[in-house]
Amino acid sequence: MSIDSSAATPPQAPADAPLSEERIREELKSVIDPEIGLDVVNLGLIYDVKIDGDKVHVLMTLTSPGCPVAGAFMASVKAGAESVPGVAECTVDLTFSPPWDPRTMASDEAKLMMGFYY
């Protein structure tokens, strides 16, 4: 059985909804890891989202420190956050502490799609 992740479209918040971490995370579900094919939120790659007025700061990790598309991937997260109405600027910082572990950080849906069945 195959699950098509492209079929699930995240719900869109109304344009006048207040800026919130949840709203940013919903938008970031449109950013897909190019190697795994799942979104950054369900993979557990987004560690923190802070909002200060119209500025957003995202702390994230990668599936591996040697990710060849790290720069483009981080730029996609930045662009995704900045696409939310009310966000003037987003900074994205990268960390590997703690290291990403899909068994504990990914959503149940992402674990299933990656083949973790425990």
Spell out the key features of this protein.
globular, 5 helices, about 120 residues, three-stranded mixed sheet, alpha+beta, GMP Synthetase, Chain A, domain 3, single chain
Q: Which SSEs are present, and which pair or pack?
A:
Layout: H1 21-28, H2 40-43, E1 46-52, E2 55-60, H3 70-82, E3 89-94, H4 102-105, H5 108-114
Parallel strand pairs: 2-3
Antiparallel strand pairs: 1-2
- Provide the CATH top-level class: Alpha Beta
Q: Termini distance?
A: 17 Å
Largest sheet: 3 strands, mixed
Mean pLDDT over the residues: 87
Which strand order spans the largest sheet, edge to edge or round the barrel? Answer: 1-2-3
Q: What's the CATH H-level homologous superfamily?
A: Fe-S cluster assembly (FSCA)
Counting helices, strands and paired strands, the structural category is alpha+beta
Taken in chain order, the helices and strands follow as HHEEHEHH
And the CATH topology?
Answer: GMP Synthetase, Chain A, domain 3
Individual helix count: 5
Number of domains: 1
The residue ranges in which pLDDT falls below 50 over 5 or more consecutive positions are 1-10
Morphology: globular
- The gyration radius over C-alpha positions equals 14 Å
Strand content: 15-25%
Architecture in CATH? 2-Layer Sandwich
Fraction of residues in H or I helices: 25-40%
